[in-house]
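Tokens for Germination protease. Go.
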Amino acid sequence: MNLDLRKYSVRTDLAVESKELAETVHGGPVTGIHEEVEEQNGIKITRLDVKDERASRQIGRLVGHYVTLEVPGLRSHDSELQERVSAAFAKEFIAFLSKIGIGPGATILIVGLGNWNVTPDALGPLVVENVIVTRHYFELTPDQVAPGYREVSAIAPGVLGITGIESSEVVQGIVDRTKPDVIIAIDALASRSLERVNTTIQIADIGIHPGSGIGNKRKGLTKEILGVPCIAIGVPTVCYASTIVNNALDMMMSHFNAENGSEQSNTKRIMGLLTELNEGERLGLVKEVLEPLGHDLIVTPKEIDEFIEDIANVIATGLNISLHQAVDKDNVAAHTH
């Protein structure tokens, strides 16, 4: 078998997954990356700093700061856990803003990317529905704005297929007129891990490229393009069929190895040459089989309807707490619907 596997890449928008894959490929830690991991009450928080271009190339992520919250329990629709995740997200986001030099008086534009007609892609618009917007009060009745609120505006610009206009062009026009200090862009992502779909939130200071999770190349929302810092918040809501097949092969090999103990011959007899391929090679093989047939589908769990509402509320609540000092986790429910 003589395959050129370079054209096949593991499709993920998560920095933690890119780092894990790079470590698997290189057989050890990637230099130039600082990592902190904290776990408490069912919430795992990973803070990654990609410090130089060499590390950036190795993991395929831009130089910058990444924070990932992983909460497997979110699948259970536990309202108390959702409140804890909102509080943890708010705490991390406040620290994130401080780390990249965004002060408490900075004006914010929240951009909800995605297609509100397609449930797995509706995260951004749903968050926009639930955030507290205040810019009109600052513009019209500034003397009546209570202390502890900052100027926040929000927009869900739709997608190119509906509007005929790139999201970045819509946002650029708004930025030129309203002059926000910071953009916060929310979008759905793709993951290489079934376990992280619908259970993970990523914060990054590198901006965002709408449609990149499903392989579309679109003009991005970045500081270089828009002229102001752009923070990306994303949740993986989909993965590729090839990823699912590859994960299934991994689980089968792990199962057979566990059944056979130290005896690997049975595993090789069942799985054949697949046991000798690394993850990237195996995924490349799966894609080579599926893509010509049009079967490398983008897949989302059947519970996506309930989940997308829940996670949008979690993120919106966390943003409201972190952006407005007057809002806390006890009274924020009164401001969202």
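Residues 1-8, 331-337 have pLDDT under 50 and may be disordered.
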